[in-house]
Specification:
With 141 residues, this protein is of the alpha+beta class. It has a single domain (3-139), classed as 3-Layer(aba) Sandwich (Aminopeptidase), CATH 3.40.630.30. The protein contains 4 helices and 7 strands, in the order βααβββαβαββ. It is globular. It starts with a strand and ends with a strand. The structure holds coenzyme A (COA).
């Protein structure tokens, strides 16, 4: 493993999280920048994976109500387990603070990825920012 994951508040991780989110969601996936931004970041726990040189590779966030979101891995580093490690780190934060479950709105293409981490699909597919999504939930052991 040539990366490490840092968990911290928005004030500390904002610049690195925004760099990755702008690259992945706004530039690559064409999500309008105003939809990518919301006022929840200040109250979330944030995770960033860094390589050995301190380069940010991936990000994600956990809301106070147990929602996980904004999970993104920079394109060159996908398929190497980093997204899974960030997801597991956020689930560990939720577990440690006493949450019993986590939920997320998965882009449907990524549902098998979340499924391999214990998330089950709920309800019907819906559109958000022009991208098909499905709600998923995982119990925290
Ligand atoms: N993208 C990547 N992997 C997917 C996938 C998808 N759409 N759907 C299923 N998988 C599976 C892979 O087949 C692989 O399984 P394997 O290990 O059995 O081969 C596994 O998930 C990959 O796991 P990991 O390497 O931990 O995933 P990752 O680091 O590539 O992170 C994403 C996964 C989806 C977060 C990442 O690809 C990404 O940032 N994509 C663009 C942004 C995005 O769509 N974010 C999701 C918002 S809900």
């Amino acid at each position: 493993m040539d990366y490490s994951i840092r968990i911290a508040a928005w004030a500390e991780l904002r610049a690195d999280a925004m760099l990755i989110r702008n690259e992945v969601f706004v530039a690559e996936q064409r999500v309008p920048a105003e939809l990518e931004m919301d006022d929840m970041d200040a109250v979330c726990a944030h995770a960033i994976a860094y390589d050995a040189a301190g380069m940010p590779l991936a990000t994600g966030r956990l809301l106070p109500d147990g929602h996980i979101g904004r999970l993104a891995v920079r394109s060159r580093r996908r398929g190497q387990g980093i997204g899974g490690a960030v997801l597991q780190a956020l689930m560990a934060v939720a577990r440690q603070r006493g949450d019993r479950e986590v939920v997320l709105n998965a882009q449907t293409h990524a549902a098998p990825f979340y499924g391999s981490h214990g998330f089950a699909r709920e309800g019907e597919e819906f559109m958000e920012a022009g991208i098909p999504h499905i709600r998923m939930r995982a119990w925290l052991a």
